[in-house]
Every structure is written in C-alpha cells, then in structure tokens.
Amino acid sequence: MNSFFFFVLTTLIALMLVYLYRVVRGPSIYDRVLGLNGISTKAIVVLLVIGTMFERVDMFVDISTGYAILNLVGALAIAKFLEEQGAQEK
Amino acid sequence: MTIEIPLLILLIMTAAGAILVKDLISAVFILGSYSFALALVWALLGAVDVAFVEAVVGAGLATVFFLLTLFRTTEKDRVICRPPVPWSAIIGLPLLGLLLLYGAGDLPVFGDPTSPASTVISPLYLENSIRQTGTPNVVTAVLMDYRSFDTFIETIVIFTAGIACALIMRKGDK
C-alpha cells in the first residue's frame, strides 16, 4: 500500500512540473494564473497523500484546508488585480 | 527518502525562475509555487507546524501582500533592470556554498537517535511538558510556555510592523 502512495506522490509531482513549466514560461499572465491554480489543486492532494504515508492524516487535513482557503483568497486577489489593471489600461 | 530529491530540484527551479523572470507579477506567482514546494519539503521532514505556516503565510498571504504592493506602486516598477553580476559574487558565492556543504557533512543524520538534540533536550520536553504546562501539544508548550517571552516580543515586532504599514498606506491615501 505504501508503494502505491509513493507512486501517486511521484506522479503528482511530475504533473506539477508540467504546470510549473507553464508558470515559468507562460507567455501571458493568464497562463501563469491557471498554472498556479493547477499547482495548488495538486498541492492539496499531495499534502493529504503525505499525511497518509505518515499515518497522521488528521494534522495534514488542517494544512491542506488552510492552504485551500488561502489559495481561494489569493486567486480572488489576483482576479481583482487583473481587473484593476485592465481598468487602468483603458 | 528519494522523493525529496525531485522536490528540492523543484525548489531550486522555482527560486531561479522567480529571480530570472522579467515582470514582477509573474515573479509573485512563481514565488507562490516556490513556497508551496517548500511546504511540501517541510511536510516530508515531519515539521507539520512549519509546513502549515509556510502553506498559509508563504503561499497564501504573501501572494496577496505582494499583489497589494503592486497595486500601490507605479507602472514603471514592473520592469526590472539589473546591473551585471560582479565577478566577486560569481567566485565567492559558490565557495560559500561549498563551505556550507562541508559544514553540513558534520551534522547528525536526519532522525538520528544518538544526536545531541534527541538525547538531551527532546526527552526533557517530552517527559516534563505535560506535567509542567498542561498543554497536550509539545510544540505549543515550547512556543507558548517555555519560550513565552520570545513569542511575546516577536508578536510585538509584528504588531509594530503592521502599525507602520497601516500608517504609511493611510498617508498615501490623502
């Protein structure tokens, strides 16, 4: 069972590398926002998988919940920022 | 734990990307993914509290604060122009890194039961903390009871910084 979770963890981190390529190279800001959101959804699952590997899911659920909530706040801030920037350019 | 090596590569890649990228908004996004990778490394090392703080403050709040700063600053600040790197840095920093790696070779192995930290100080806290402080979580007992003045003064520093930021931003409004 542990090797299964290890495989899941490796696959998720490999998927994150794909998103990371889009964040670093992405031609426009929107690519970067989408890449960051994709990374953070993987982040929530990866934290839970690590918690299952350590057999302490109860603590890691807290981390991933806090991460998910603040990630929503971050996404809202980014959206607000892009809105303001678009208003300034007009 | 071989899973740490791709995570550390991810960490270095995001850090380099945040420095090398051209505009500041992208650097903010890359820093968000950087602190997420750092939170994963902390979680794998078993430091759950630090991972929690890194995920919440580093990836969540710091991104919002950086974006707020970019709100307030002018357009021309978004383009970074760098002076060329001096030769002393190119030669000196790898030497410093080699020195640190040489020093890290003498550190005890991670999770070593015979290291000084896990033979002297950790059993002391683990045995006495619940009797002396009545707090079930040992990390909380160390932070809030044994080192309460340290935490208190840290809180004062952060509070002062918050007041200063609020005053500066209020002055900008007028």
Key terms for this structure?
heterodimer, A: 90 residues, mainly alpha, 3 helices, 0% strand, flat, B: 174 residues, 2 domains, 7 helices, 78% helix, globular
What does this structure look like?
The complex is a heterodimer of chains A (90) and B (174). Chain A is mainly alpha-helical and 90 residues long. Chain A has one domain (2-89). Chain A has 3 helices and no strands. Chain A has helices spanning 2-25, 29-54, 57-89. Chain B is an all-alpha fold. Chain B folds into 2 domains: 1-82; 112-174, no CATH class. Helix content of chain B is 78%, strand content 0%. Chain B has 7 helices and no strands. Chain B has helices at 4-20, 24-45, 48-72, 87-104, 116-133, 138-146, 148-173. In chain B, helix 5 packs across helix 6 and helix 6 (138-146) crosses helix 7 (148-173). Chain A binds chain B through residues 6, 9-10, 13-14, 16-17, 20, 23-24, 26, 29, 32-33, 35-36, 39-40, 43, 46-47, 50-51, 54, 56, 59-60, 62-64, 66-67, 69-71, 73-74, 77-78, 81, 84, 88, and chain B through 3, 6-7, 10, 13-14, 17, 21, 25-26, 29-30, 32-33, 36, 39-40, 43-44, 46, 48, 51-52, 55-56, 59-61, 63-64, 67-68, 70-71, 75.
Quaternary status? heterodimer
First-to-last CA distance of chain B = 55 Å
Radius of gyration of chain B: 21 Å
Average predicted confidence as pLDDT of chain A: 81
Whole-number mean pLDDT of chain B: 81
Order of helices and strands of chain A: HHH
Counting helices, strands and paired strands, the structural category of chain B is mainly alpha
Estimate what percentage of residues of chain A fall within beta strands. under 5%
- Overall body shape of chain B: globular
Which residues of chain A sit in consecutive blocks of at least 5 with pLDDT less than 50? none
